[in-house]
Structures are given as C-alpha cells and as structure tokens.
Amino acid sequence: MSESEQTKAPNSIMEISAFDPEARDNPHPKLKQLRETHRVLRDEPVKTWLLTHYDDIRATVNDRTFVRHPINAEEGSMTRMMVDPDDPDGRRSSILFQDDPDHSRNRLPLMKAFYARIKKMEPEIEAMIDKVIAAAPSSGRIDLMEHIAVPIPILIIAHILGVDESRLEEFRDWSEGVILSLNPLRSAEEAAYMMASGEKLDAYFTELMEDRRREPKDDLISDMVQAQANGGNFDDDELRTNLQALLVGGNLTTTDLIGNGVWLFLNHPEQLQALRDNPNLAANAVEEVLRFEAPVQATSRSVAEDRVVAGCPMN
What we know:
Blueprint: H1 3-6, H2 21-25, H3 28-37, E1 40-43, E2 48-51, H4 54-61, H5 102-135, H6 144-149, H7 151-161, H8 168-178, H9 188-214, H10 220-229, H11 236-249, H12 252-267, H13 269-277, H14 282-292, E3 307-309, E4 312-314
C-alpha cells in the first residue's frame, strides 16, 4: 500500500498545521493526500477555504482584488481572530495585512530604503555571517540552530535597523512574543506575553526614531525618519509597526528557513550534491526551500464580493 493510500485526507486545516503533532513532525503525507483529493477544501468550523494547488495559490496571492486585512474575513474564521481589538480599522496593521492604497503607500518607501541599505551593507553583512560561522565548533557535534540559525538573522536585521548589539537577547525575546499575533489560538498567557513584547518594542523604536531625528546614523531607521521628514506619507505609528514587522520577518522566519533548508538538504543528498556541483543554484534552492518547507505555513486572503476561486464559488 502506498504512502498516500495509507494516509487519510485531512478534513480540517488544523490537521495539517503545527497544532497537530503528526503534521508538525511531517506534514507532507497529509498534504500530498489533500492535493490529490481536494483542489479546494471548505473547513466549516474555522470558516476557511483551503487551496491546495500551487498555481491556484500563486494566482490568488498575486491578485490584488483579494483583500488582506483580517477585518474583512468571515465572522468566526481563524483570520478574523487576528483583528487587534485596539486597532479595529487596521491603522496599525503592518504591510503584511494592509490593502491598497495603504499597502503601497507604506511598502514602497520601506522596501526602497531596505534594499538600498542591504546593498550598501553587503560587505559588512557577509563579514558578520562569516564571523558567526567561524566561531562555531569546528569538530564534533554542532547545534545548527544554537550556533548558526538563531544568532545570524537577529544579528543582521538588528545591524540593518541600527539596534545596539547589547540589546539582541531582548530583541529576540520580544520577537518571539510579537509573532504570537499570528497565532489566533494563543492562550491568555501567550496573549499577555505578546502584548508586553509589543509595548516594549514600541517604546524602544520610539526612542530610536527620536534619537535618529536628533542625530542620524548609518542605518535603516535613520533612512526612514529622513524619508518621513522629506515628505514621506506615513506616520510614526505606521513606521513603528512596519519596523517591528521587519524585525520579526527578518529574524524568526529566517532562523526557521535556515534550519528547514539544512534539514532538507541532509535528507535529500542528491539535491545537496547538485548544489555543491553548481553553487549558482543557491538562489533557486532558497526559493524551493521556501516553497516546500516554508517557515510560515499559510497566508490568507478574503473575497470582497461573490466570485469563483480555483473553480469554486465563494462569497
């Protein structure tokens, strides 16, 4: 009997999420069976439609006629649970959840400054990565996550932003708290941790922004407050929120990407050898790791009006 025949197709998105122990260990047999049996799955308990085919997913996330903000999601859905009760109109939402015109208004200046900053700092960033790798144990056993995957992302994104290296441990902890906003099933204890972490990040970024206005430095926060002063159409709340999103997105998810990527290559030695034989495949390899073993398992969109998605009527 084949693996797909032994595996029962999931009935709920929860069965293929990290909340399910079997899926957390290895989601791919369930995902394979789901793709083979359902192009679209309606999960009524969580009021969600699940797309399973790559082309449908890609077309949906690239289509800006779908809406992002959780406030537009169906009442009772998991996505709707992510609405911040203190920000019901989404004013403080990051670009991850904003719709146009706010999404473009905030994203374009931030990404322009971010990519320019990365290009300018590229030699420094490469030197910092080399230093972390060189400091790892050179023989015996090594904990990849402890020695490589955790320290490198927080070190690099903090350097780009302009965060004092002495605060890196705090920033990592605050990031762990803030990312719980993406977990609609967080406990009361986790919600308190999330709120406290967000407040600490808000206070720290406010301090940094004010400091960079007085005395600009060679970092992204200085770039952004200067862009704001030069007519940038975003306020301090929006800037703080998106700086937080950069911190978390450039930190926790990158740690997971490194760990997932190394694990995949160790379990697919033929692919590892192909990459060793042709290092020019590195960019494609990263994209394939992101596709196959993504740090973030799902993203959501809402339909603004009745329409057909992946051959299925939705409203």
